[in-house]
Amino acid sequence: MSSHREAPEISKDPVADSTDVYAFVSPSKPDHVVLIANYVPLQAPDGGPNFYEFGDDVTYEIHISNSGKSTADISYQFRFTTEIRNPKTFLYNIGPISSIGDKNWNRPQFYSVTRVEGNKRRQLAGKLACPPVNVGPRSTPDYAKLSAQAVHKVGGIRVFAGQRADAFHVDLGSIFDLGALRPLNEAHLIPLAKMDGINSVQAFNVHSIAIEVPIKDLTRNGRRPKSVNSKNATIGVWTTAKRQKNRMYDDKQNRYRGTGPWEQVSRLGNPLVNEVLIPMAEKDRWNHTAPKNDSKYAKYVDKPELAALLPVLYPGAFPNLAKYGKPRADLNAILLTGIPKGVVPGFQNYTGPVASDMLRLNMAVPPSANPNDLGLVGGDAAGYPNGRRINDDVVTIELRAIAGLTLPLVDPSFKPDGAASAAADGTSNTNAAATSSFPHLGLPGGGYQTTPGTTKAS
Questions:
Q1: If you average pLDDT over residues 279-305, what whole number do you get?
Q2: Do 402 and 304 meet the contact criterion of CB atoms below 8 Å apart?
Q3: What pLDDT digit, counting tens, does each position of 73-105 carry?
Q4: Which pLDDT score, from 0 to 100, does residue 455 have?
Q5: What are the Low complexity biased-composition ranges (predicted)?
Q6: Residue 332, SS3 per DSSP
Q7: Nearest to 333 by CA among 320, 318, 310, 351
Q8: Predicted local distance difference test score (pLDDT) of residue 86
Q9: 185, 306, 340, 458: least CB-packed within 10 angstroms?
């Protein structure tokens, strides 16, 4: 997955596990950027009576680098507080929830938003309401209304925190079964019948933090860049979750409390980096590392394990990739530095030589009138790896890049194998579609409305 269960330790702590990061110029307000960080993966909509929520003991942050140093020059920090209105019931709600302030909702959540810039901290809001989860037609009869009420205007920004449909799609059941892609089943070392991909994230929700910010608030010089080649046009974006070093149960307050310094336990920039490129023994350490220190992991981008496995798993399909022995300068540009000027005509999102895993968004590239889900690979410079939009098919994009499709951009002598342009897991988003309005992710699946899937042992 993008980052749903990417490391052994964070997979045991889903409340702090970042799943996806999105960054794109707003299609409805092109002088604003939308930043989205998702957490709490694989939420079954019917997961009551203790439904999913943000952690009161977790600090969630979205970071922006605009200095070329891959440091957090601006951060938006989110802290949550949960209330129990009726301590004598086990129920999440004791009647229909008609508004986000309805007293029938027994466990509301609120959050603060703080902007951190250098040594300056400014709280933008102190007690913003989240929506409830989508319980069902009796408990949350007008969920779209509840969701809309949870979009808050704070100064020149809009912000939302709550449950949404997971828009990421991937065929985990096939990919982690010895690197198989169902559309290419017949070419696999252990062949099976060709079939369409199956979205393993079907019917699951996530908890999403979304913020829409004026572009000028994110640039180094405080102005909106006009030229794609402007040195102030590109920002780096990533998200983190932090916990305090110690966690103990407080009997008086009847809950766990953290003590001691805050420690980063999760981070995410580009999709699938920790998931696919970082070896298992180093995944948890990667989650604790700041992007500016990622040079130690560059060797796994230079020679990705999956690129070596593809010719073995698909005999005869990747002969040119099998013979390529040079470091992968194309993947380094896509994932670690941004793409310099001159590699893709009329485009760049280079942030400097510091190797660091960040989404890189050139904010001078306008939203596309005809978006292509393959982003830059499909000729659409407004899409991944220029930031990341909700519908960008990042699994296919990165599979094809690792398979060698992007190598000619930096090494014209390399001819991609025919299979590189066919590499795909064959999935699409089968949850609620992205919307054109903020916070852009689709409404979450309801507990009553969602039908669980089926399982087979053989």
A1: 96
A2: yes
A3: 999 999 999 999 999 999 999 999 999 999 999
A4: 65
A5: 418-437, 449-458
A6: helix
A7: 351
A8: 94
A9: 458
Distance CA 239, CA 330 (A): 24
Which residue do the tokens 């449909």 mark? 165
CA-CA distance, 318 to 312, in Å (whole number)? 9
Evaluated on CA atoms 381, 34, 385, 223, the torsion sign reads: positive
Distance, C-alpha 223 to centroid of its chain: 27
Number of residues in the chain: 458
Retrieve residue 216's tokens: 């000028």
Task: Name the 3-class secondary structure at 300.
Answer: helix
Kindly report the backbone phi and psi dihedral angles of residue 373, in degrees, each rounded to the nearest multiple of 5, phi listed first: -65, -15
Q: What is the model's pTM?
A: 0.96
Q: Is 373 helix (H, G, I), strand (E, B) or coil?
A: coil
Strands 255-268 and 234-250 come out as: antiparallel
Burial 102-121 (b: 16+ CB within 10 A, else e): bebbbbbbbbebbbbeeeee
364 neighbors 227 (Cβ within 8 angstroms): yes
- Interatomic CA distance for residues 427 and 399, integer angstroms: 13
What is the phi/psi pair of residue 107, to 5°? -135, 65
DSSP readout, 98-149? -STT-TTBSS-EEEEEEEEETTEEEEEEEEEEPPPP---TTTSTTHHHHHHH
Cis? peptide before 452, omega within 30° of 0:
no
Here the tokens at position 426 are: 């064959």
**Neighbouring C-beta atoms of residue 96, cutoff 10 Å:** 15
Measured CA to CA in angstroms, residue 243 lies from 57, 119, 258, 259, 266 at distances of 7, 21, 7, 9, 9
Rounded Cα distance between 428 and 425, Å, is 9
Token duo for residue 200: 């393993």
Query: Hey, what amino acid is at 333?
Result: A
Domain range list for the chain: 10-421
CA-based torsion, 101, 102, 104, 105: positive or negative: negative
Given pLDDT bands bounded at 50, 70 and 90, which one contains residue 253? confident
Cβ 403 vs Cβ 419: under 8 Å: yes
* Contact in structure between 16 and 54 (CB atoms under 8 Å): no
State the Cα–Cα distance between residues 261 and 113, nearest whole angstrom: 20
**Nearest one of 375, 399, 389, 391 to 431, comparing CA atoms:** 391
CA–CA separation, 386 vs 365, rounded Å? 9
Question: Would you call 69 exposed, middle or buried from its count of C-beta atoms within 10 A (0-12, 13-18, 19+)?
Answer: middle
pLDDT tens digits along 1-54: 578 888 899 999 999 999 999 999 999 999 999 999 999 999 999 999 999 999
Q: How many CB atoms lie within 10 A of CB 347?
A: 17
Take residue 57 and report the two structure tokens written for it: 């003991």
Element at 81 (helix H, strand E): strand 74-82
Secondary structure letter of residue 237 according to DSSP: E
